[in-house]
Amino acid sequence: MAQEKLLSICIPTYNRAKALDRLLENLESEIADVSDFIEICVSDNGSNDGTQEILKKWGAMLPLALRRSEKNRGYDINALEVTKMASGKFLWHMGDDDLVVAGSVKRLVEDIRSIGDKNVGVIYLNASLRNKWVVNFNFDRFGIYPKDGIPAPLNVSFGGSICLRRDSAIKVIKEKIEIVDGKLNKKNFDTFAFNDFIHTYLFMECLCETPSIGIEPRHGMKILADGSRIPYRKKLYLELIIVKYVLEMKKRYPWFKESELIINSKTRVLGRTFLNSGFALENPGLEYLYQAYLSVVMKVMEIEKRGFEMSLLKIFSLLRQTPVSRQVIWLGFALLKNALRMPFDNKAENTQVLAANEAYAIDTLKDLLV
């Protein structure tokens, strides 16, 4: 008799064959002792870079479940599809360009076993970034907590921290999500929401549905990213959606405490705004993205009553309008970028997918900025 699958590792992927190969090699050793309880679900979003060859290579060595779209339908739909594929009791979402921390899969299976019949809808897995834990907990063993007694702010924007009870996730998908014009409409908000953060939306809705959360404080994913240089346009888009995500969390789940993100720290938000301003100064065609980003940051400052930082950003915006100041700001940006060897460049990035995502992100700001 086949063992019940306790854990489905869910990997949406698109055109990252090399990174995906690295991750699957990593998983081969990590699941060795618990492979009977594991399945690895991969949803390929129409890749054309050899991803299918990588999956064929690993098909005989790993417990893979596979699907493939004929075309790129965007991250949200791909992440939704890989969630629906899974059959395990819990589903661990995982970026194709990251790696699991040694021993994490085996320990997570043990955590799931320890839950038993307790009504736990989600498990939060800590993540490692530059050899530091993203969240600092004052305990080091898996624990179960009431959702109104979470012991520390959590960072749920990162997919590798998200582990969902399957029946809770499927219930949310059936009752609260519909695909409209190629986008995911979250019906409980009567609007499109959390674009590019479907994993976070599922986590929050599953947490709302159940009384308890499991927290694993010392293992999960190593955040690596794929290491490629990022064009200014894509970087500004990513900056826009992360601050938009922060604003949505504050408006839609005001009871939930987030760990320090780029917008919650005074030095980070001012530094990021300076860099983002530099991208648009060097490439004036991106000013619309910078202004959208700035409008969201200012709204978050307003909600949090951070008047001093708002004043600094307003002064910076006024300075940025004068030719001399613009030149000085751009020069400071260029020197900083070169000194720190930041992986960004002004290479053209004009894909239809990115253009559509930008338009969608900016259009859906209307209700949030009220």
Can you put this structure into words, describing what you see?
The chain is α/β, with parallel strands linked by helices. The chain folds into two domains: 7-222, Spore Coat Polysaccharide Biosynthesis Protein SpsA, Chain A; 230-363, no CATH class. Helices cover 45% and strands 19% of the residues. The chain contains twelve helices and 15 strands. The protein has helices at 17-30, 51-59, 75-85, 104-115, 166-176, 198-209, 232-252, 266-282, 287-303, 307-319, 323-339, 352-363, and strands at 7-13, 38-44, 64-68, 90-93, 99-100, 120-129, 132-133, 143-146, 162-165, 177-180, 183-186, 191-192, 212-222, 230-231, 344-345. The strands form three sheets. Strands 1, 2, 3, 4, 5, 6, 7, 8, 9 and 13 form a ten-stranded mixed beta sheet that branches. Helix 5 (166-176) packs across helix 6 and helix 7 (232-252) packs parallel to helix 9. The mean pLDDT is 92.
Tags for this entry?
12 helices; 10-stranded mixed beta sheet; 2 domains; 15 strands; 3-stranded antiparallel beta sheet; 370 residues; Spore Coat Polysaccharide Biosynthesis Protein SpsA, Chain A; single chain; alpha/beta
